[in-house]
Amino acid sequence: MDDSPIMPALLQQIVEILKTSTISEERGKDVRSKFWAAYKKVSGEFDDNMLETCNGNMDIILIFAGLFSTVNTAFIIAMQPNPVDTTNALLVQLIQITVNGTSAAQPATISPITSYSSSNFWMQALGYMSLALGLLAAFGAVLGKQW
Fold first, then answer.
1. The whole model's pTM is what?
2. Can you list the residues of the chain whose pLDDT is less than 70?
3. Secondary structure in 3-state letters for 84-147
């Protein structure tokens, strides 16, 4: 009963020695066991190196996708029609109705701001598509990092 405080420390020492031991690698005397011991060592180093490289690449993809999406969103917002023009036209129409009364019907003078040319439509479609693909790339990188 007196050895109980010493026992966990002794077990910890034994575990540490077994972790760093190469007895199992030196134990095999035939060629196959030496081959598999060497293979395990080399493949472990290769796997660690590959995981480190892939993790770094996914970090770069995440940073690029975030910056690209930010800039792309700014361009998409700049391509949108200005809603202030429509608001101002409607306010002018309301003022005219208030001044002239409701009996005088005023023609609607709101310009068709929402009509897009085909080139503007395709520019916006490409902008939204590139934003979606950038976010999809970021999502894939996050899934890859979690895996």
1. 0.55
2. 1-7, 15, 18-29, 102-116
3. HHHHHHHHHHHHHHHHHCCCCCCCCCCCCCCCCCHHHHHHHHHHHHHHHHHHHHHHHHHHHHHC
For the stretch 14-30, pLDDT in tens is 767 756 666 555 555 67
Q: Which of 59, 73, 68 is nearest to 144 (CA)?
A: 59
Angle at 28 between CA 23 and CA 29, to 5 degrees: 125
Find out whether 97 and 108 touch, Cβ atoms under 8 Å: no
Backbone torsion region of residue 117, taken as left when φ is above 0, otherwise alpha when ψ lies between -120 and 50, otherwise beta = beta
Token pair recorded at residue 91: 């306010």
Q: pLDDT tens, 113-138? A: 556 678 888 999 999 999 999 999 99
